[in-house]
Amino acid sequence: MPDIVIVYEDTNLLAINKPYGLIVHHKNSTDTQPALTDWVAASYPELKDVGEPFIASGTPLPRWGIVHRLDKETSGLIVIAKNQEAFDYLKNQFQSRSIRKHYYALVYGTPKDPVGVIDSPLGRIGMKRTTQLEGKKLVDGKEAITEYRTAKKFSKYTFLDVSPKTGRTHQIRVHLKSIGCPIVGDHVYAPRGWQSPPGLHRLFLHAYKIELETPGRKSLVLECDLPEDLQIFLSGLE
User: Fold this and answer.
1) Are strands 75-81 and 205-213 parallel, antiparallel or unpaired?
2) Are 166 and 172 in contact, with CB atoms under 8 Å apart?
3) How far apart are CA 93 and CA 96, in angstroms?
């Protein structure tokens, strides 16, 4: 189990910095790879029944109070409720889009506009998400909105501050690809044949800030630094 750092904790919730390479929930009841739920189970066993069950391959598994998720390849902040009232309160904020999430992403190329909004519904081909919504094999087609702004330009890359307004699977990765700027290190959505640059061994996507209201009606802004490996890679581009 990779090291997990607690960024914030009170009587109703805690926020942790999830490391790269760690899944949030197990894929099914026989999945043995390390998951964030294993850490919660060991550290906060009383949270087993907080939140509705998580359905994995048709099997209900304990949610352990985890309100939202990040991809295995993405690092950063995840909020965990410590009681059912807090879970319901935070879940309602996510559904009403009143919680603001912010990510750092390094992308190939340069967006046409330095600041922009990507408003493209996401469909799905098999397990991959896409903004293409025409075709016999495509399903769903859910609304997806992502805001971004340029934080810094490099010769071949652009460092972006990204804020998704909806929470679709792989939304940021698919949306940035759709404007011709796939995330560096994304082996799923980068164009075929593209390789990660030397010195980078992961997806360059990190959830660094989240803004929410606690069940006690307190405005809370949580942040965590860019992981050291991403900081080192970024500094090497300057």
Assistant:
1) parallel
2) no
3) 5
- The string of pLDDT tens digits covering residues 140-155 is 667 889 999 999 999 9
**How far apart, in Å, do the first and last CA atoms of the chain sit?**
33
Distances in whole angstroms, Cα of residue 232 to Cα of each of 69, 75, 156, 164, 227: 26, 16, 17, 26, 9
* pTM for this prediction: 0.90
Distances (CA, A) of 216 to 80, 89, 110, 150, 156: 15, 10, 42, 35, 46
Choose among 49, 48, 40: nearest CA to 18.
40
Q: Which helix (H) or strand (E) holds 105?
A: strand 100-108
Provide DSSP, 109-145.
Answer: S--SSSEEEEE--EEEETTEEES---STT-EEEE--E
- Name residue, tokens 């999430």: 101
Cβ 196 vs Cβ 184: under 8 Å: yes
Q: Which pLDDT tens digit goes with each residue over 66-99?
A: 999 999 999 999 999 999 999 999 999 999 999 9
Residues acting as catalytic residues: 71
Q: What are the CA-CA distances from residue 225 to residues 76, 104, 147, 201 (Å)?
A: 9, 10, 21, 18
In order of their start, the domains of the chain are 5-235 (3.30.2350.10)
